[in-house]
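re the bet — no i am not wrong, look at it urself. input seq straight from the record:
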Amino acid sequence: MMVNDASAGIKKFNYKQTGYLEWLKEFAAVTGGEVKGNTVNFSPKAGQGYSTAYFLEKGFTACVNNYRLNDHILLTREPSDNFGLIIYLYHLDIKAPIEYQLENIPITIDQESHYTLSFVNAQTLHQVKFGKSAEVKGLSIYLENEWISKNLHHRLLEVFSYLKQVNYYKRFINARQQRLMDEVLNIPPDHPYPGIFIRSRILRIMDKLLENFLQIDISESPEHINEDDFITLQKIETILTSCYDKNFPGIEKLSRLSLMSESKLKKLFKQSFGMGLYEYFQKNRLHRAKEQIVSGKFSISEVGARLGYQNLSNFSAAFRKEFNCLPSEFDIK
C-alpha cells in the first residue's frame, strides 16, 4: 500500500466508485455498521454516528457522513473504468493525522479543524487513512459520466473536460457552502421531512458549485498555494464568518493568527476568495442579517444591534448597498 497501513486493528476497504446506494452496503460490511434502508448506523462497538446515501437522479448520488469509528480505517478507491467526478465537502476535526494519496501525491493533514472542498476524477487511484479518533463529517457527491453528458452543456462541459485531465482540483469552501453543509449535518432528529430537506440542500450546493465554475477559469493556475497555507486561509475564512456579530478582527490580529505577513495574507486571501478580508467579512455578515430577518425570529433593529450597528440607518444603508433594497422589504413579520 502507498499509505502506511501498519497500524494495529486497521480496517481496509477496497472498492471502485459506484453510486452511493450500492457503495454504502459494501462500506457497512467492512466497518460493521447496520444497514437500514439507505442508512448505515454504527453500533457502540464499531463506532458512533451514521452514513446515509441519497439518490438525486440516475447518475447523481450523494452520501452524508457523520461518524467516528473505533478503529483506524484505510479506504482505497481503485481507478474506475469510466470517467466520473467525485465532489468532497468535509469539515475535518483533526484529533489524529489524516493521510491520503492521490496517484503519486502523498499528503498528511494534522492541523486542527478546517473545511475542505475537492473534485476528484474517479479514474484515479485514491487512498485515505483516518486515525481511530478522527471525526468524518461531510458530504460526498458522485456524478457519473452519463449524467454529466446529459445535463451539462457548453462552458460547463469544458470545465468537466479539464477536471478529467487534471484528475484533482481543490477549492475553498465559502461561507454559504459551509452553512448549507452544516444544515445537512445538523438536521433535527424530529424534522418532518428530512429526505426532502437534505436533497434540497444537496441540490443547492451543486447549483452554487456549478455557478462558481461558470464565473472562473479553472485552467488558469493562480500563484501556488501550498497545503499549509491553504489550510491556514480556510481557518482565517472561518474566523471571519464566525465572528459576524463582532467587530472586524483587524489585519494585524489575523496576520498573527495566520503566521503570515500582512501583505502575504491580504494577497493570498484575495486571490483565493476573490475579495479582500474586510469586504468578505462585511458581505458575509450582511447575508447572515438577511437570513435572520427572513426567519422572522428577530426584528430589523434586533438584527442590526446583533451585528454591532449603533445606528439603524447605517445598517439599512449597508444592507441596501449589498442587496439593492431595504431590510424592511425582506421582513416577513
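see?? The radius of gyration is 21 Å. told u. also The mean pLDDT is 84. so pay up
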